[in-house]
Structure formats: structure tokens, C-alpha cells
Amino acid sequence: MPPHNSDAELCLEALEPYPRMSSHEIPARLVKLSVLDQSTAAKGRPESHAIAESLALARACDALGYHRYWVSEHHNNASIVGTAPEVLMAAIAATTQRIRVGSAGVMLPHYSALKVAEQFRVLEAIAPGRIDLGVGRAPGSDRLTAFALNPDAMSAADRFPQQVHELAAWVNGEPLPDEHPFARIGAHPSGPTAPQMWILGSSDYGARLAAHFGLPYAYAYFFSDGRGVEDALRLYRELYRPSARYPEPVATVCIWALAADTDAEARRLASSREYWRVGFERGLRTALVSPEEAHAYAHDAAGLELIERIRRKAFVGAADEVAQRLDAEAQRLDLDELVVVTWTFDPAARRRSYELLASAFGLAGGPRTEGAL
């Protein structure tokens, strides 16, 4: 983190609190909720605990009625320690009953498209009809790490559209064109169902590519606190070319949110991620600290300005208010599904957040609460 600042005026209490919703009710609509789990590490606990917590949360979200459970891929990162989504997915798929399980995503330029297709065909055999294959072009790491993963990583990124074309054919058991050099190659095991393939992105590039191939698209809203989401979704929908499996565009956003029993408790819990974000913007990749450690830290003026910007956009607060704001954002963006990512130092608080949102949205895992959306 940046050097400790002793100026008493530079404290979190001086900042504006998280915005509150107006008291009027937002009309109810059917919005599916899904999960993006980034397997975040916590200071003072072994990184391996983050993987065990991912497995436990997946089982809980399966019971709560969430639609999908996606896991991410990052490398050489002490903050986000999920390095092998396909391995973690196998464990989740084998220990859940109904929830879809997916990657958000596999960073395709690191790998052979055929090998990824084979991995996900195996996953589909483990959990037929429940597997999502989300792919992205970003390295999910620094340049040196990307080179260590694939010495041709830079040129491979330029081949991303070709890789997507090949991967989609192999995953769905469809032939490549006769003139293609890999036309005689298929991905096994075959079966009656196929993974649902998604393009992930945080820029216009992914939106255009997903539209070109007629694939579902997920925008990384949490990367930029929502900046650019309107343009990306508009481009995707305007340029969409219908495919046999997806005659209409299918879109969602991955959005950071944290709900608690009270607004004050949510703000306290969110301070761990605020502290992390200040360090992240300065090139640090550290494990989450406790809310108490985060709150005690005296940020400099630049850090406080960043935290204030985060709070203006963040979906943080008491459960009913967070649920209303999420629902309103889904309506504004014309989405029938949101993928929620939540970080807390204490895994019990993260699980509680997902429980509260499941109740507020009336998911199948539990009864709708009074005043639920």
C-alpha cells in the first residue's frame, strides 16, 4: 500500500457515504441472478483457503437458486488466486446439483483451442447441460507471466478471432470448413449436449466479436464501474448476426455488489475492497485485509478521491436497497440476468450477501421476503 499518512483529516469518515435509493418501489421483473467468484485471498490465511471457500460458496449458491456460477482465471496474482478455472469447475460441477458452472473466463491466447475444447467436452460429460465456456482475450496477468504461459502469447492475441471460430466448432461438435487445416479433427468426448460459449469483454472489441459469431456476450461492468457498458451492449445488439444456437442476442454484465443486514455493516465490509483498489491502482496485488485494518489506514488525498469515486458507483448497502439498485440497472440495460461478484475478508459475510440478494429477488432456493422485488 502507499505510505501511511498521518494527516487526521484524510480519513474515511470524511467521505460521502454510499448513495441511497429513493423510497419508491421499482416495478418487479424477472431477473436471474448468477455469481462470478474470483477466489480472492485474505491476509493471514493460506491462499488454498480461497479455493475451499469457492467450493463451499458454489454449493450454497446452488441451494439458494442462483442460475450460474462462474470462476475466473488470473496468474501471478496474490489477490486473485484462481489460476485454473477448468479444474475448479470440475470440482464444483461434481459437488452441485442444478446450477450452471462456467469460466469467466479462460484466457484463450494462452492455450490451444483444441485442448480447451477437449477440457470443456469432458466437463460437459461430468455435468450435462450445465457447463458454460466463457473466453477472453486479455492475459489475466502481466506480460512476463503471459510469456511464461505461452511464448507466442503476443501473436496469439492477434489470432483470437480464429481461435474463437475453431473453438466454437469443436465445442459444439460441428465441422470446420473442408479447406481448414484442422477439418479432420474433432474434440472428444462427444455427447447430446454442448457447453454454452460466451465472449467476455470490457471494451467494444469483445462486443463486436460476439456479435460477429452470434455468441452470448458478458460485459465486465466491475472493471470500470460501469463505464462503457451502454456502448458495448448497443454495439453487440446492433451488429448481432443470428446463429443456429442463438437466433437472438444474449447479454449479461458482471457487476460488483455487496449486501448486508444494515447499511453500516455493508460499508464496513466494503472497506476491505476499497483499500485493495487503492493499492491496485498503484500496481500492488495484495491479499484482502480485514475491515478493521482497512478502516484504520489513513489514505492520502489521491486514495481518498479514488474511494469517493468508487462509492458513488458501488452497489453496496442494506440488502433491500442493493437489490432495488441492481434491478433498476438490469431494467436500464434491458437485461434479464445479472452476474454478481462480491469480495469480503470474511467468507461468511460474502455468503450472507448472496443469501440476502437471493431472498430479495425471490430466487427458487427460498421464499420471497416481504417487500422483495
What would the keywords be for this entry?
about 375 residues; alpha/beta; TIM Barrel; eight-stranded parallel beta barrel; 13 helices; globular; disordered C terminus
How is this structure best described in words?
41% of the residues lie in helices and 14% in strands. It is α/β, with parallel strands linked by helices. The model is unreliable at 1-10, 21-28 and 366-373 (pLDDT under 50). Helix 8 links the parallel strand 6 and strand 7. It has a single domain (28-289, 315-360), classed as Luciferase-like domain (TIM Barrel, Alpha-Beta Barrel), CATH 3.20.20. The protein has 13 helices and nine strands.
Can you give me a brief rundown of this structure?
With 373 residues, this protein is an alpha/beta fold.
Q: Which secondary structure elements does this structure contain, and how are they paired or packed?
A:
Elements: E1 32-37, H1 48-64, E2 68-71, H2 85-94, E3 100-107, H3 113-126, E4 131-136, H4 143-149, H5 153-158, H6 160-172, E5 196-201, H7 204-213, E6 217-219, H8 229-239, E7 251-260, H9 263-281, H10 291-296, H11 301-313, E8 315-318, H12 319-332, E9 337-341, H13 347-360
Parallel strand pairs: 1-2, 1-9, 2-3, 3-4, 4-5, 5-6, 6-7, 7-8, 7-9
